[in-house]
């Protein structure tokens, strides 16, 4: 299934990217570096259209998989977070802050 995902990844919407990350994390299945890099690359391309749930679930999934996406992508995630922050509910906020705590990442005063 993940091999087929790789073939169709460019056509995925943000929710579908997030679902792939979430499913791997929920199953405690590390898909391997190649697939994670592909998912993160597609995330970067489409991050501008991620909703509050897409952002928080992706961050939760990456932290659960022990995959730190790096400072540049985290900065981009939190730029998008600021755009969708009005749509954040308690679960979105807790998932996002838990991921930050897991990585020891401070997203800055604007987010906190």
Observed structural traits:
mainly alpha, globular, 112 residues
Number of helices: 6
| Element string (H = helix, E = strand) | HHHHHH
Helix content: 55-70%
Radius of gyration: 13 Å
Low-confidence stretches: none
Q: What's the N-to-C terminus distance?
A: 38 Å
Q: Report the sheet with the most strands, covering strand number, pairing sense and barrel closure.
A: none
Question: Shape, please?
Answer: globular
Could you say which structural class the secondary elements and strand pairing correspond to? mainly alpha
In total, the number of strands is: 0
Mean pLDDT: 92
How much strand content do the residues show? under 5%
Report on this model:
The chain is mainly alpha-helical. Helix content is 67%, strand content 0%. It is built from six helices and no strands. The chain starts with a helix and ends in a 9-residue tail after the last helix. The relative contact order is 0.14. The model has no long low-confidence stretch (mean pLDDT 92).
Write a brief caption for the model:
The chain is mainly alpha-helical. The chain contains six helices and no strands.
Topology:
Elements: H1 2-8, H2 14-26, H3 33-46, H4 52-64, H5 71-84, H6 90-103
